[in-house]
């Protein structure tokens, strides 16, 4: 599917279409998707937020780190997990304090992804 169509689906589609578009934009590898994906981090649908967060990591959108750090406080554990993983993919050193806090998250999946991301960031600095 064409990049612009995916961006349009992300902005205007049904929940399922927005979620799928967020995921496919990550696989596109295009940094042109970064701004629409950051906007999708505030979508009312947790699946959209989760897929958008992970996709930002996939495309290497380092400028999205602050938005992803804020997402570590989301109500949904899968959104927090995706944000943690994306921050690791981005090797976002600024996220280390927030990821350290996420190691105490009530959700095991968030804790594991925060720990993994901290290892990835640490390996990058070595």
Give a topology summary.
Elements: H1 3-12, H2 15-28, H3 34-40, H4 46-59, H5 65-71, H6 77-89, H7 96-102, H8 108-125
Helix pairs in contact: 1-2, 2-4, 3-4, 4-6, 5-6, 6-8, 7-8
Give your account of this protein's structure.
The protein is globular, with a radius of gyration of 14 Å. It has 126 residues and is mostly helical. The chain contains 8 helices and no strands. It has a single domain, classed as Leucine-rich Repeat Variant, CATH 1.25.10.10. Helix 4 packs parallel to helix 6.
The CATH topology, please? Leucine-rich Repeat Variant
Give the overall shape, derived from the CA principal axes.
Answer: globular
Would you tell me the overall average pLDDT? Answer: 97
Tally of distinct domains: 1
Structural class call reads mainly alpha
**Which H/E pattern describes the elements?**
HHHHHHHH
- Strand segment count: 0
N-to-C CA distance = 39 Å
The main pleated sheet reads as: none
CATH architecture assignment: Alpha Horseshoe
CATH superfamily: Leucine-rich Repeat Variant
What is the name of the CATH class?
Mainly Alpha
Write a concise synopsis of the structure shown.
With 126 residues, this protein is mainly alpha-helical. Helices cover 71% and strands 0% of the residues.
Task: Give me some keywords for this one.
71% helix; 126 residues; mainly alpha; Leucine-rich Repeat Variant
